[in-house]
Amino acid sequence: METIKAAIIGVTGYSGIELYRLLRQHPHIEVQSVHASQSVGQNLSDLFPHIGNGQEIIIEAVDSEQIMKTVDLVFLATPSGYSKDMAGLFLEQDFPVVDLSGDYRLPAEAYEKWYDKPAAPASEQERFTYGLSEWTNLFGKKFISNPGCYATATLLSLLPLVDIIDEKSIIVDAKSGLTGAGKSLTASSHFVQAYGNYSTYKLNRHQHIPEIMQVLQAHNPDIPHLQFSTSLLPINRGIVATSYLHLKDGMTEEDVDLAFKEAYKESAFVQLHGHQFPDLHQVVGSNRVAIGWEYNPRTEVLTVMTVLDNLIKGAAGQAIQNVNLMYGFPETAGLDNLASYI
Amino acid sequence: METIKAAIIGVTGYSGIELYRLLRQHPHIEVQSVHASQSVGQNLSDLFPHIGNGQEIIIEAVDSEQIMKTVDLVFLATPSGYSKDMAGLFLEQDFPVVDLSGDYRLPAEAYEKWYDKPAAPASEQERFTYGLSEWTNLFGKKFISNPGCYATATLLSLLPLVDIIDEKSIIVDAKSGLTGAGKSLTASSHFVQAYGNYSTYKLNRHQHIPEIMQVLQAHNPDIPHLQFSTSLLPINRGIVATSYLHLKDGMTEEDVDLAFKEAYKESAFVQLHGHQFPDLHQVVGSNRVAIGWEYNPRTEVLTVMTVLDNLIKGAAGQAIQNVNLMYGFPETAGLDNLASYI
Amino acid sequence: METIKAAIIGVTGYSGIELYRLLRQHPHIEVQSVHASQSVGQNLSDLFPHIGNGQEIIIEAVDSEQIMKTVDLVFLATPSGYSKDMAGLFLEQDFPVVDLSGDYRLPAEAYEKWYDKPAAPASEQERFTYGLSEWTNLFGKKFISNPGCYATATLLSLLPLVDIIDEKSIIVDAKSGLTGAGKSLTASSHFVQAYGNYSTYKLNRHQHIPEIMQVLQAHNPDIPHLQFSTSLLPINRGIVATSYLHLKDGMTEEDVDLAFKEAYKESAFVQLHGHQFPDLHQVVGSNRVAIGWEYNPRTEVLTVMTVLDNLIKGAAGQAIQNVNLMYGFPETAGLDNLASYI
Amino acid sequence: METIKAAIIGVTGYSGIELYRLLRQHPHIEVQSVHASQSVGQNLSDLFPHIGNGQEIIIEAVDSEQIMKTVDLVFLATPSGYSKDMAGLFLEQDFPVVDLSGDYRLPAEAYEKWYDKPAAPASEQERFTYGLSEWTNLFGKKFISNPGCYATATLLSLLPLVDIIDEKSIIVDAKSGLTGAGKSLTASSHFVQAYGNYSTYKLNRHQHIPEIMQVLQAHNPDIPHLQFSTSLLPINRGIVATSYLHLKDGMTEEDVDLAFKEAYKESAFVQLHGHQFPDLHQVVGSNRVAIGWEYNPRTEVLTVMTVLDNLIKGAAGQAIQNVNLMYGFPETAGLDNLASYI
């Protein structure tokens, strides 16, 4: 089978270094070069000593022309607001891009409202396919906008159910480990602040809300604005999305079971737990998603709990899964690590 | 002002030792003796080296007659299922009891269903007053059934709102630190299992559900069965209760603000945060409760977040607050510690 | 008994806010005003919601003249390098100062070498008494230089033993929780970096080394340069100092036991655990110090393990203890909180 | 290249399930069957949901005859005291065994003293080779006794130095995450007890002491009894061994550097950090070992800090590395995962 060469731009961020780490095991993707705006000329192994053993992996500046000459695809692991400045030249030359930021997930108006930054040109944004691997055919695609971590967990919970739930009933209480807050040094990611704590932030204002809504609405236009909470768990890795839903009249627990089983019957990474709720140990360290659900007949509320590793299935792992799908590699290539469990 | 003497039965459990610790600072309550079914004859300072400095505090067997001769009130910090075996002799002699277990919180039928244990006699159960300090007049009472930790957080969130919310809309997503799971060695409280994890347990089956329901229903009989999730946070102390609610037609955000301010305007321990959500650092180590709320006009959902220290306001601290109210001591006596914050 | 009024300068740092919190319970010290260089004019309760319940505690700029008119003593909870800029005016007027920074702990030459900052004038430095409460008579003193957290733990371990150990044998392996690293946002205090980790820093370069050495050498001039490691534990509060020592010829385990018992026989805060090693739960939240030791006859090594809460006995608590001693208040006034244990 | 088949006995313990997890990626070792004394007949995927996706991996009872018929090698991931009851039948038939317990690491007398259990017969014990991969030629061996986690970290620190250090000077301060304490539910591994804590246990009594001593003494018979502390870090995975040493007269820092470089110049897994101390993030999740050292000329103490993942290089990973060496597979086969870093 074919092997492709890739460059990672933004390798020093959490998603970037995770991409590098995971791709070291990939049988069909070879990382040819790594790039960043800072630390250029330094050895990646010096900055990230878990990577190397004396090996030289020099961080290069971003030279798009040069990159397009030497690799087949570029990963943009750059923060939202930066990717769109990087992507232009690649798009112009129709060169394959997988973007892990939020820059190509939303139409300009929504982007500017929720991100409070200038949006990428609509002409660029429209060329991207939203890469929720389990729900889109990505074979042969060239430009992938990789989903957000909260969005991945929430969409995998709700998409199987869009037609059997009361659309107005959706409430999501989502939680994330601190790696989800990124590498920048902020008061809320200071160890002392987050340790032993649980804090809710950006209530109803998280930028993954419109991303989730637009995908849900594409499947069921009756779905209204989403009620969505985001909180920080005092751990490093993990997303938990707990959703509360009412069923449409006439729908039953069996319809729910069936919907989940049907949706993920061929999925390599989604594990259905039915009435036993999953926990983070089952997924952290892997590209797995675990989903549990339970219907309470007395309250008529369906609870769905979905867990995943925000840096893998919520970022770098899903990006690799998407490249596998784009190129027709086995979907699990390079992603067969099990969760470390403990 | 008067000083009373107290005995603690069950001093070696988490609530019992916390009671002992807090009462050491109380100006009007003196711990005369400590009791347990195990470790009798041992020095409490040896088992709990944070307590003493060579001091002898011998753990005594439970001899109700002797206790009633020497103290004015007994705290039962015994587990659910044990308190009812202890309380009988005290009740017979009309001797003041504050029970921290679930044994006197529910009518027999509900107790047996949710606790799966034989209930205390109805004649005993009826003599107890449910001691949610902020919502009951406890002056002159003799028998207090101290609320559960989840119940305290949830009721303090919802009681101000019972008349202005759509009764059918209540969904509570509650989380607790591991001390809430008690001292017994179980697979779920093993360090390795809980560390770096988040797990949901007893979904729709937690024994605090009927306790919460009966108090809510006493204020508004239209409130139906409660949707209630409970999860373990990988920390030691803290309860977070996040509630999702719809308002009754015609009710607005201002009504919510007003309801909270009215309910707690004279409360020494409830801090209202309005639209800034509280976190656990604000309450852990103190008897404080902090409540934040926000109404989302687009989804018409009101989110209420309440935090407290499960061992203090959720157990031992509230028990002391209740004794203060029973005897007319200042409500904050012995409870003026601030949260340790970091 | 007399009550004094105090001002806290640097109230927004970890030591400053801890001082404020602890002094709220002090029967003889009243905090009259709080000061900082930033956040002037803001309400302390807004910045630290665990403090207040709507109360206004306005942060004031530092106006030394005004402070000296209204209070009896000033706490400098300012960082090293800042205290010396604050202290001058107070010293000029012979106004009582307790400084929690390192600025008055070392002679100028040592200070400039280890802190890499300009030192306070020698004429000022000499007026300060080093406030290791258990080892100095502080009654009537006016200027206290409060010890560092590592220094407190290490000196309380070693001072009783200076005459019975082989002076050349001392090796200290010390560990600290993250609050010891302060409030500034650094890569090493980022949650993601410290979580699940253990890292050794400033090996042989920590600024508490000369502070410890000079006190030890004042008791035994034969003590040479100190071997001292410092590491970060992934927790918020706590210092652990593990010391490895050889005994002088002819000295035995009994001499060690005797030395500890003699040294701390009248100490209110030092708990001797003998051959049962203490852990952090016994001290965190209190001004207590717990010391355990064990002699290994096969290796002829004495291990001493000392634990304390770095923000209390290692900073704010010891500062209060020192004021108690200066003014002849009971040594434990305001400091009778037990460790929270769990 | 050849592929061998293996059975895992004790698959439900932490080392056993970690072996299973890691072997899933091994190109030359296939797990043919898994065995335990409990949970026989259950699906491993049900007990450990991170493992499977509906797959049936039935836990079988231990039938040695049957195992020898179907596989080429057996891993004993059984606790100390149990392995020796399992190993006999395999040894009788000269069937390859890798034992992860302590049962074949020590001569009978030492074993019975330090483990307080009956020892395996000397005739069996002598057939085992101690499998410290970097220091033994294991090619063609049949019976491997896999080293303990503390022993691995300490020996990799000290073996390069045995000839250049003052033999009497060795002091080791070692720390372990909670997975090192195993799966049994004990008071010290209860979440509430270990959280936010640091506790030293089995001081001078840990069963890895004689294991370390005998290997050191085999390289330098002048090495006396070892001073060795063991403490629990409030994390799941990781060993830190901090060693304090004096150099022999005439030896210098350069000799230390040289000794480490020489010892590990061909090592695939040992990373030398020289004067930058490593942390746990560099190794957890991988079979890597990272070693840093620094000589303090003023105290004449050499500090060596070694970190590894106790379940991988300290147990299951090293067992796999050893099988690779026994069979002449590439040493890193199945072990090329990098540390997860964050």
TrEMBL record, chains A, B, C, D:
Describe the location of the Semialdehyde dehydrogenase NAD-binding domain by residue ranges: 5-143
Name where it's found.
Cytoplasm
Q: Which InterPro entries match?
A: AGPR (IPR050085), AGPR_AS (IPR023013), AGPR_dimerisation_dom (IPR058924), AGPR_type-1 (IPR000706), NAD(P)-bd_dom_sf (IPR036291), Semialdehyde_DH_NAD-bd (IPR000534)
What GO molecular function annotations does the UniProt record carry, in alphabetical order?
N-acetyl-gamma-glutamyl-phosphate reductase activity
Q: Which UniProt keywords apply?
A: Amino-acid biosynthesis, Arginine biosynthesis, Cytoplasm, NADP, Oxidoreductase
The similarity comment for this entry is: Belongs to the NAGSA dehydrogenase family. Type 1 subfamily.
Q: Report the protein name in the record.
A: N-acetyl-gamma-glutamyl-phosphate reductase
Q: Could you tell me which species this protein originates from?
A: Streptococcus moroccensis
